[in-house]
Design a protein that fits this description.
The protein is α+β, with helices and mostly antiparallel strands. It has seven helices and 21 strands. The strands form six sheets. Strands 6, 7, 8, 11, 12 and 13 form a six-stranded antiparallel β-sheet that branches. Strands 1-2-5-3 form a four-stranded mixed β-sheet, with helices on one face. The protein is globular.
């Protein structure tokens, strides 16, 4: 295990901003993880677990303790299927999109709509990553973790992870307790791709035959690129953390109040079923109807020219500027619609 000092974190994030880590370790084995955690405790250092850096905003002051980057590799398909499912055991440090590509090539369905999402495998259970009609919780069989409270490696079944919309025990009730080491996914061999999401339906509406997994993967990547949600070198809209705000999930009463506000303005509120007795509302719709257009911004930060949910680093931005734009959007949306938008990225060092 190599311990480094004053390591810049900006290049390790998709936002490309933020200060340095006082201490930094890249862990490629479970032993490295255990050693790094022990080191942080022995020196009384605050510990932050870094994955792919795609859903992260690092403070300009950086992180005063130890940053542990989990880089455990490997994608392994277990021999034989289990109850009709193909089981993939994947290291937390693997690129998420590389795993999706691997699954699609193996003709295993279940994650094809999650193509093009940046970051690492270990980050996907934390926020129950989802897009275009799929959530990772639908396919996660178990998560191997290092339990820092108990000092032991454990296996948590999918149910024990407490998945809800963009949430799990890893970012709520047990935040800071576990280091994710590996994730086991149960996919459907020979399964049909899911094209229930509106954008995908429109993409394939003129086809006479059903698309295969590879075609759906490419369609998702194409749609994401069009919205500035695919990391492409040289694209000025790609220095971001993706969608900066979560889609609000409202109770029936909250939804009715919001719908009435929209109707009073002559607008129709688009919404979608979420959990039982709740509705999911488009955060992008709320942002746009609060006066924020694509390309809006000031100084070195702005809203993507392709999608109003992405705050982008136009070059030379700092975290304080991102927070200023975030605050402005939140305040105006709340004033106009009575909804407080919740940021999606993890805020580190603030």
């Amino acid at each position: 295990m190599l311990l480094e000092e004053d390591v810049s974190l900006a290049p390790l994030t998709t936002f490309r901003l933020g200060g340095p880590a006082r201490f930094f370790v890249e862990a490629k084995t479970v032993g490295d993880v255990q050693e790094a955690v022990a080191l942080a405790r022995s020196k009384n250092l605050a510990l932050f677990i870094l994955g792919g850096g795609s859903n992260l905003l690092v403070a300009d002051s950086g992180w005063p303790g130890l940053v542990l980057k989990v880089a455990i590799p490997s994608i392994e398909r277990r021999s034989g299927d289990y109850e009709g499912k193909a089981i993939f055991d994947v290291g937390a440090g693997e690129s998420w999109d590389r795993f999706v590509s691997h699954a699609v090539v193996a003709q295993c369905a279940g994650v094809e709509c999650l193509s093009g999402i940046p970051g690492s495998v270990g980050g996907t259970p934390v926020q129950n990553v989802g897009a275009y009609g799929q959530d990772v919780s639908e396919t996660i069989e178990s998560v191997q973790v290092f339990d820092m409270k108990e000092g032991a490696v454990r296996e948590l079944c999918g149910e024990a992870c407490g998945f809800t919309y963009r949430s799990s025990i890893f970012n709520t009730t047990e935040r800071g307790r576990f280091v994710i080491l590996r994730v086991v996914y149960a996919l459907t061999p020979g399964g049909a791709p899911r094209i229930s999401y509106a954008d995908l339906n429109r993409h394939f509406e003129c086809r006479e035959t059903s698309p295969n997994l590879a075609e759906v993967r490419e369609a998702v990547r194409h749609i994401r690129a069009r919205k500035g949600m695919l990391i492409i070198a040289g694209d000025p809209d790609c220095q971001s953390a993706g969608s900066f705000f979560k889609n609000p999930v409202l109770s029936e009463q909250q939804h009715e109040e919001l719908r009435n506000r929209a109707a009073a303005k002559g607008l129709t509120l688009p919404s979608y079923p979420a959990l039982e007795k709740s509705r999911k509302v488009s955060a992008a719709w709320l942002v746009e109807r609060s006066g924020f257009t694509r390309g809006y911004g000031f100084g070195h930060v702005g809203i993507s020219s392709k999608h109003t949910l992405a705050i982008v680093n136009r070059g030379g931005a700092n975290a304080a500027e991102v927070l200023a734009l975030k605050d402005q959007i939140q305040q105006r949306v709340e004033e106009i619609w009575g909804i407080r938008l919740e940021p999606e990225p993890v805020m580190v060092g603030f």
